[in-house]
Design a protein that fits this description.
heterodimer; A: about 525 residues; mainly alpha; Alpha-Beta Plaits; two-stranded antiparallel ribbon; 23 helices; about 5% strand; globular; B: about 425 residues; alpha/beta; FAD/NAD(P)-binding domain; 3 domains; five-stranded parallel sheet; about 25% helix; about 25% strand; transport (chain A)
Chain lengths: ~525, ~425
């Protein structure tokens, strides 16, 4: 059988498909680029850091570009998945594990030991890898690089280079191309360049990636952040207002019209990396029912955690006296509870039917949140919430969710868990968008009548682990919270069965199993039963 | 004691029947198959060889599904059916009694008595065992320096695509003078010929196999072409000249057979409590323009569901709606709704409108009644169309110009794809002004 385990160290399997000479050269160029960075890490004294940084990033990009051109442009347009499950790197083989370990190590060092990357603390000069990035950082914003600048640059280069690869891979598919150009644009512009320029204009403003919406951006409502914005006049005020509008106005409108894909696979940086650099790993997400169950518990727990944590954070820096500021602790907590109750009651009244059995779990989540908030309000003191120091909750969230879950596991485990582990199991923003997508959105994946042959290409390529085939083979549309609308299921379908659409809400969910292709009278008969 | 329903064959027909019987009743259900432990999608075998998927991904249900739904699975080969004692005799001596029996054994690849057809390295591409065989004889282009495929149908072109994915050179022998032109109108068939050649597959049209020669170990050495006597050295020969019902073990059972197991519209055989569905069933009378044996995924699924109703006391005739089908020829997707005939066998009343895009990978053919202008069917290549829309148009008996004018409503291509409806409409208008 071809699903043999690959013991070879070759990146390209099977034996039949060796990589070409051009690809070998391209691969070497990329490795030399990485090697320059490793040399920097060990404090090599380069004659010109600027030149060597340009060389390193240039070689990595050029290597990826040349490799992709040779891989895709030498063949006719079409689906290019040959050998995906034979290649060691994309089938949890040895190379997959090696890359996973390297990525995970990188994230641990990045988050917890940036001094190993050469970060100069207490005004000391940067060394090592971070010093290599100083020239670029100084060019953009005039300040020396930080570990986050290094990370941001590498992240952006990865999205741009692998985005190019992805565009070539799907050069017959305009949806994929436009979507990829979109994530490349938002990463380069909104996540990388604009914050640097904002710093140049006004260096007191907190770092703000405009497209990073609360609760994914979990620190935007922290005291230091809000104070930072508010102490910067109108522009700061405008930014914090934009932050609030993003989640409460802009997000619901766009999700209603287009589904959560407008964010998750068109704008979001985490999604951007998953769709480009992570594309080779999309098939590794688990499609088991048990994984889906775990997903629903985990992601909604994180959501509850993040709502409670954010409320608690804001709560701590609000006062008791409404003469100082109208928004007191009591007013705030009442507003939060009123808002959550409004959503909960609204859903239970109007969408009870569509939720089905999940309504029970929704109710558990809702009441747990309310109970936690009330507990906090009535037991909290000036400097203690939940009987612990108020900052502890926020630190715990930042450590376990913000760093370990989204970074170390989410991206470090790409070659093991697939490219969307964070988006699927952990992202509270995805949970909110998904909840709305399931209940109040025009988006769905339409199944084309009875044309499904149950081949499984759709499920296999779903990065979110949705068993797309389970719906398609019954003639059912796919309306799932977790679907990020990447459109690959539709692209790989050999029978033209799946189409991502925004259409009317009526008939979006068609759960009646129909007799596909059988005569209409028989369908009536069965549907009546 | 609930009735025991035994199903021979765990393909789409048998499994669909089992699933629906379970939905409708508490009957005891047993599926017997010698091929695999669990149901898998036969049409997806090619993707396993190509490395797009692993074999377990071709299984639409997780392994716990069967126990949870109380569908017993028995891996065994049925040697014979004893219809007087309501029992199956298995290889190895075991006996399975049944109250009702469903024969859903599918097809087997055709072999036409070619010399050398049973040599090592000669295979069909139908069963899981064929895939294992191919993996053994054609793991890469060093072990298999060339493969020859005999028979130009859907399985043949899939096998060519599979071998191509591992850079194994392929010679593709097609008896007809153009690929699949017994089914496709000429212009379409010729477009596919060019597409096959663009993939560097050595397509030989109007070419028959004379014999397969053996090396001294009983393995394929070469094939000889009938017309020219040319010898082509090869390591693998794929026989893909169609399939026929897999019913050899039934011959002694008293069940009436023709090419397949003869059934009426209720999918009943001549023996009470024995039914046949899917590829192996043969209708006494063809339904509409359908063939009496329909070896198609969708019809197997429909028959399975229909029969489940009959077995669960809601006697229901197999009453398929408008014909539809689909396939993929290398990179070109194909869908068909209603009837569009090839040049051979085209009824006198059928006229066709054909449009092809300049890039030679997209075209449509619309069939209509030449007098009444009634829309009869459409073939579409490289453009996805909506099943539901065409189903409605066929039921509503729309005329051809309505269909051409409303083609945009039926478009099912992904968002942002180029649309060709205007171009098609212009071509249609031009043709009928000059005609």
């Amino acid at each position: 059988m071809s699903n043999k385990i690959n013991h070879s160290m070759s990146i390209a399997k099977p034996d039949a498909v060796d990589i070409s000479t051009t690809q070998k050269i391209a691969l070497s160029a990329g490795i030399i680029g990485l090697f320059i960075m490793i040399l920097a890490l060990f404090n090599t004294n380069f004659p010109s850091q600027g030149l060597f940084l340009a060389l390193a990033l240039g070689l990595i990009s050029a290597g990826t570009i040349v490799y992709s051109r040779d891989a895709y442009l030498t063949k006719l347009e079409g689906i290019k998945n040959d050998g995906v499950w034979f290649k060691s790197i994309s089938s949890r083989g040895l190379w997959g594990w090696i890359v996973g370990v390297i990525l995970t190590t990188f994230y641990i060092i990045l988050y917890f030991f940036p001094n190993y990357l050469g970060l100069g603390t207490d005004g000391a000069e940067n060394k090592g890898l971070i010093a290599l990035f100083d020239p670029l950082s100084k060019l953009l914003s005039g300040r020396p690089a930080s570990q986050w600048f290094v990370y941001g640059t590498l992240y952006t280069v990865a999205i741009l280079a692998f985005g190019y690869k992805f565009i070539l891979k799907y050069r017959h598919n305009r949806y994929q191309q436009i979507r990829t150009i979109s994530v490349m644009f938002f990463q380069l512009g909104f996540a990388f360049l604009i914050p640097e320029f904002m710093y140049v204009m006004n260096n007191d403003l907190p770092y703000y990636d405009l497209k990073s919406v609360w609760p994914l951006n979990y620190y935007i409502f922290d005291e230091w952040s809000v104070k930072g914005f508010l102490s910067n006049g109108n522009i700061g005020l405008a930014l914090i207002v934009f932050g609030i509008l993003s989640i409460f106005v802009i997000t619901p409108i766009l999700t209603y019209k287009f589904g959560k894909r407008w964010y998750c696979s068109w704008v979001c940086g985490c999604g951007g990396l998953a769709e480009t650099a992570g594309d080779s790993f999309r098939q590794l997400s688990s499609k088991k029912m048990s994984a889906w169950k775990l997903e629903r518990w985990l992601i909604h727990t994180v959501l509850v955690f993040s709502v409670v944590m954010t409320t608690a954070m804001i709560y701590t820096y609000l006062g008791y006296d409404k003469n100082n500021f109208w928004l007191t602790r009591s007013v705030f907590i009442s507003l939060v509870i009123a808002f959550l109750t409004l959503i909960f009651v609204g859903v239970m009244v109007f969408k009870r039917h569509e939720l089905g059995n999940d309504a029970k779990y929704g109710a558990i989540g809702f009441f747990a949140t309310i109970a936690l908030l009330l507990l906090m309000h009535f037991t909290g003191t000036t400097d203690q919430l939940f009987y612990m120091k108020s900052g502890t909750l926020r630190s715990a969230y930042g450590l376990y969710i913000g760093s370990i879950f989204s970074g170390v596991i989410g991206t470090g485990f790409y070659p093991i868990l697939g490219s969307r582990a964070w988006c699927r199991f952990g992202c509270p923003m995805a949970a909110i968008l998904g909840f709305q997508q399931r209940l109040f959105s025009k988006f769905r994946i339409t199944t084309n009548g009875g044309q499904c042959i149950s081949c499984g290409n759709c499920s296999n390529s779903c990065e979110m682990g949705i068993d797309v085939r389970a719906y398609a083979q019954k003639g059912e549309n796919i309306v799932r919270s977790s679907c990020v609308g990447c459109g690959i299921c539709s692209a790989v379908c050999p029978r033209g069965v799946l189409k991502l659409e925004n259409d009317s809400m009526d008939g979006r969910i068609n759960p009646t199993e129909i007799l596909l292709g059988n005569d209409v009278n028989l369908m009536d008969l069965v549907n009546k039963k | 004691m609930e009735e025991h329903i035994v199903i021979i064959g765990n393909g789409i027909s048998g499994v669909t029947a089992a699933r629906h019987i379970r939905k409708l009743s508490n009957k005891r259900i047993t599926i017997v198959s010698a091929e695999t432990d669990y149901f898998f999608s036969r049409t997806a075998l090619m993707y396993v060889y190509m490395g797009h998927m692993k074999f377990e991904h071709t299984q639409p249900y997780e392994n716990w599904f069967w126990k949870k739904n109380r569908i017993e699975l028995k891996k065994a080969y049925v040697r014979s059916i004893d219809s007087t004692n309501n029992a199956l005799y298995l290889d190895g001596g075991e006996t399975i009694p049944y109250n009702k029996l469903i024969i859903a054994t599918g097809s087997k690849p055709n072999k036409f008595g070619w010399p050398g057809q049973d040599l090592d390295g000669v295979m069909g591409m139908y069963h899981k065992q064929d895939l294992e065989n191919l993996e053994h004889y054609a793991p890469n282009n060093k072990v298999c320096k060339r493969a020859v495929i005999v028979g130009g149908g859907l399985i043949g072109i899939e096998l060519a695509e599979m071998l191509n994915s591992r850079n194994i050179p392929v010679t593709f022998l097609v008896r007809e003078d153009s690929f699949w032109n017994g089914v496709l109108p000429n212009a379409e068939s010729q477009m596919i010929n060019r597409h096959i050649k663009n993939h560097h597959i050595d397509l030989r049209l109007g070419t028959n196999l004379k014999e397969i020669t053996s090396d001294k170990n009983g393995k394929v050495k070469s094939i000889i072409i009938q017309e020219t006597g040319e010898e082509i050295m090869c390591d693998v020969v794929g026989l893909t000249a169609g399939v026929s019902p897999n019913i050899d073990f039934i011959k002694t059972s008293g069940i009436e057979i023709g090419r397949g197991v003869k059934v009426n519209r209720f999918l009943e055989t001549n023996i009470t409590n024995i039914y046949a569905i899917g590829d192996c069933a043969e209708q006494h009378e063809p339904i509409g323009q359908r063939r009496p044996i329909e070896a198609v995924w969708y019809t197997g699924r429909m028959m399975g569901e229909t029969l489940a109703h009959t077995i669960c006391n809601n006697k229901t005739a197999y009453n398929p709606g408008h014909w539809f089908n689909s396939a993929k020829f290398l990179d070109i997707e194909y869908q068909t709704y209603g009837w569009v005939h090839a040049a051979k066998g085209k009824p006198d009343y059928e006229s066709q409108f054909h449009w092809k895009h300049d890039d030679d990978t997209k075209c449509i053919t619309v069939a209509y009644h030449k007098d009444t202008k009634k829309f009869l069917g459409i073939n579409t290549f490289g453009i996805r169309m909506r099943h539901e829309t065409f189903d409605h148009w066929l039921s509503e008996k729309r005329d051809v110009s309505y269909v051409i004018n409303h083609l945009a409503e039926a478009n099912f291509d992904p968002e942002f794809y180029s649309h060709y409806e205007t171009e098609i409409l212009n071509a249609y208008n031009n043709q009928f002004q000059t005609a």
